[in-house]
Structures are given as C-alpha cells and as structure tokens.
Amino acid sequence: MAAQAPAFWQRRGLLAQALRPLSLLFGFLARRRRALTQPQRLPVPVIVVGNVAVGGSGKTPVVDWLAGVLRVAGHHPGIVSRGHGGTASAQGGLALVPADGDPGRYGDEPVLLARLTACPLVVGQDRPAAARALLRLHPECDVLIADDGMQHYHLARDLEIAVVDAATLGNRLLLPAGPLREPLARLAEVDLVLAHGELDAELRAAIGGVPVFPMRLFGEEVVALADPACRLPLAALRGRRVHAVAGIGRPQRFFDQLAAAGLEVVAHAFPDHHRFVAADLVFGDASPILMTAKDAVKCRAFAPADCWEYPVRAQIGSGAAERILEKLEDGRTSA
Length: 335
Fold this sequence. Notes:
The chain is an alpha/beta fold. The protein folds into two domains: 18-25 and 36-214 and 316-331, P-loop containing nucleotide triphosphate hydrolases (Rossmann fold, 3-Layer(aba) Sandwich), CATH 3.40.50.300; 219-310. The protein is 30% helix and 21% strand. The chain is built from ten helices and 15 strands. A nine-stranded mixed beta sheet has the order 3-4-2-5-1-6-7-8-15, with helices on both faces. Strands 10-9-14-13-11-12 form a six-stranded mixed beta sheet. Strand 7, helix 7 (201-207) and strand 8 form a beta-alpha-beta unit. The mean pLDDT is 94.
C-alpha cells in the first residue's frame, strides 16, 4: 500500500472510517513496540532523518544536504539505510554500498546517496548492526546519519530531523486507514522540522515549540543518462513536449516542477521503488524523456538516447545548519 498510495488516504471517507479499528490496533502495537525497545547506543553521535508518513517527503535530498553541512564543519559522516528494494539487506544481510552499485542489489536510494554524498554507506534491516559494520569498515567516521530512521528505535539517536510535507499526510490517520506511521504528535518530540510547503493549523499545533525551517527542492539543469558530461539548462526545454517518468513516493511534485518550468508534461507515474525495464521507457514518439535522479540510477543501462535526469537539491532555511551543529556539539560536551 505504501508503494502506491490509495486514493482513500486523502480523505476520511467510508473506507478510511471502516479501517480505523485497524489503525487503532496499529497505533497500539507501534507504541508497545517502542516502549519495549532497548535502544543501542553507538560510540559516535547519530542523526536521524525521517518523517511520520509513508511516501516521499524529500528525505534523500535532505540527507545529501546534511552530509554536506557536516563535512564543511569538519566532520566525517557515514550513512546507514535500510536498503529498501535491494537484495543485499534481505534476511538480515549487511553491505557497503559502492557509488556505482546495482540498485537491484543495494536499493535505489542508497545507491543514489552513495553517489551524491561520497560518504561510506551501509545498508541493513538491523540499523545498529549496519552502523557498527560501517564504523568497523570506516573508523574515521565521527557521526552517522540514519536515513529514514525515525521509527527504527533500536538505534539510539542524538538528534532527530523530521521532514514534513503536508501533501503526503493525507487524511492524517494511521495505517492502514491513512498514510501515517506515527501520530502527528510525534513531531513534537523531534529536534527540528524541515517543512516542504505550508503548514496548516493542525500541523503547527502538533509540532508545538519545535523549531521549523522551510525547505524546497530545486534544480536548474538536466543531465543526459548516456553521458553525464552532457548537461542542459532546464529552461532550454521550455515549451517542449516531454515524457516525465517518476517512480517515487510523490510523483506529482516532480511533474509540477517541470510544468512550472514551462515544459509540456506527459506524466508517467510508477510505484515507489519501481524496478524499471526498457519497455517502461517506450512511448512511441521522439519526445525527450525526463526522470528523477532516484529513477535514473535504475535506468541508465538501458535508457534511450534522448533520456535525461533532473537532479534536485534541498534548499534549507537559514539557521537550520547552525542549530544542527550546535545540538551536535552540545551532545558531545554533555557526553
């Protein structure tokens, strides 16, 4: 259900109401699991980046941004990830992800992050085990980033960053009646919130006094899959008809970005983490194909000639980086 968000998650209709008893059970089990979990602390600080809902909120660009912030401040960050969609972490496996790794083995997001950040990255369903493996392989790492780790309570964390996009929160109900993995009240427990778009009154009340910083995803050029040295300004495609391909948690955001740039978008939405094959990119005409960076890592080997990646970066409001580094330093001082 998380791979293709059901339409009923957007409203509190009859089906959502019928599933609310299961949501109550889900919430009870989640609270009990958290209460019974004994977090495992590591010898280096851990920063968790996550959210309270399934689907795309922009976590991957935020992890990339955070790794850059830490590097500039003199740290040596490493990253741990579940490796969703890859075979390497299945059945308890652990694996160090190369920047040119196979997304089918390691997962699309870990391969993308390894390429973007150049940080050591280990995938594994057992986050503490993945973190310890990373530190054994790369003892120079002095801080770890847990990608999509808010609900993985076995790994103790020193700082939590919640990425919030109101559009992904739907009817604000817990699974399976809605898209929430935890109640909105969970946001009041994190150290800072990065808000993609406007926050309504309900969200602001749930966040409480936690500092909120605006974020947006932006990109100004496209990159040829066949030759990464070949780049074009996105504006060069203004007025052109393009096939937009997205197998991400919230494909409409990608389509809207291209439309806002003046492109004539023919949208092709696929499930999140979709395993693309060559036939998925055959559309019967010669229009250029644009796709997200997350999809490009899976399609590069068989993409048509006129196929382009649209990479985006997270632009975070002023003061967020300073607060993260300050909290990190405070934690070191009190340790």
